[in-house]
Amino acid sequence: MAAVLDMKWCHVPVAGHALLAVADADGLIGLYQLLGSKETTYTLQPFASFALSKQCLALSLDWSTGKAGRASPQPLKIISSDSTGQLHLLKLDEAGSGLHEVATWQAHSFEAWIAAFNYWQTEVVYSGGDDSLLRGWDTRAPGEPTFTSRRHRMGVCSIQSNPHQEGILATGSYDEHVLLWDTRNMKQPFADVPMQGGVWRLRWHPLHSHLLLAACMHGGFSVIDCQQATETQQDMCAISVSHTLPRSLLYGADWSWLTFCRLLETEPSSHSGSWSGSDPGAATEDEAGDQWPGPPCPGSLTDDRSGSKERTSPQPSTEDVREGSSQLHSPRTKICVCDSGTEADPNIHLLATCSFYDHVLHLWGWENS
User: Does the global pTM surpass 0.85?
Assistant: First the structure.
């Protein structure tokens, strides 16, 4: 496989399986099914692929199913961008015949770094390019943009529609700013958050509508609290936590869909929760002698529980987190999949980052106090 430049899981099952979409340096959009075996191990098997065009890199992709819930007759779609400035709208035939091209059009003069759906109106897509333009498109008539914004001063490389709150759009740029927009009025953003690096990727939290994760290249990653801004449509964002990785260039960051859940006292001592990944680490014992999984990785980021400082309002700080190998969860917690039937601890979050120079994938835990 060529170098992978973007990947996203589909939020609904396809043919009964989880589906991963990958954009690579050969200009291919590849789909992979997650399949299990009798030994409870999982593999990714090719499901479908589509070549965007000759001599281009597939730079980004997005599924139309970014928010929970989808009308059953609504087709699954993918929007992708490439290094020639084009956008490609693809449709997935869930019967198994693969990806089909719906439309391709020239969106930018240089690289189209990012393309994304409006998750609430999936006929609408947005794109950002190295020409510093942010544009909107109606895929039913994609020849002319519905708007063009020059508000970012450098290349636009990250866009995501808020999956929880209709009308909220986040964009990021090499100009080291995150902008929040009301999609009903794209003339000016309602919030502008200065960062400490080019904003390569943005991800809204899967459960909390106000938390926005930013991968900021040489500036590491930050979690932005957008609650006041999105509720009041005013420029009132705050940095909940930020962390830099020396000698690293952070190009990817995303939230985990796993969460920490408190075990009820009535539950038996045995547990079914486990760390994700093939190497969960050595088990440790709690006071009752139960076996609990170890930390997700030797360099995990955890909160510093030794201090007693409390903050009612998040501020830019790295005091919330420290690097070490102590366990994130207490003896009475477990990791489980986010769903409506679990009692999740809303203050503990898992996220992953990947960096360029050192080729490292980090799994981090953050407790928001």
Answer: no
Helix (H) or strand (E) holding 232: helix 227-232
Q: Can you count the helices (H) and strands (E) in the chain?
A: 1, 29
Residue 295: which of 279, 273, 271 has the closest Cα? 279
Alpha carbons within 13 A on the beta-carbon side of 323: 9
Q: In sequence order, what are the beta bridge partners of 114?
A: 128
Distance CA 135, CA 127 (A): 5
Buried b / exposed e along 36-71 (16+ C-beta atoms within 10 A): eeeeeeeeeeebbebebeeebbbbbbbbbbbbeebe
How would residue 335 be classed by pLDDT, with cut points 50, 70 and 90? low
- What is the Cα 342 distance to its own chain's centre? 22
State how far the Cα of 75 lies from the Cα of 72, in Å rounded to an integer: 8
**Measured between alpha carbons, how far is residue 46 from residues 16, 99, 190, 308 in Å?**
15, 12, 42, 50
- Three-state DSSP at 190 gives coil
Tokens read off for 221:
């990653």
Please choose, from the candidates 248, 192, 255, the residue with its C-alpha nearest in 3D space to the C-alpha of residue 219.
248
Amino acid of residue 127:
S
User: pLDDT tens, 195-232?
Assistant: 999 999 999 999 899 999 999 999 999 999 999 999 99
d(CA 322, CA 274): 23
| pLDDT band (50, 70, 90) for residue 143 | confident
Nearest-angstrom CA–CA distance, 34 and 295: 25
Give the count of beta carbons closer than 10 Å to the beta carbon of residue 105.
16
Written as one string, the DSSP assignment of 9-54 is: E-SS-BTTBEEEEEEETTSEEEEEEEEE-TTS-EEEEEEEEEE--T
Cβ neighbors of 228 (< 8 A, separation 6 or more) are 234, 236, 237, 238
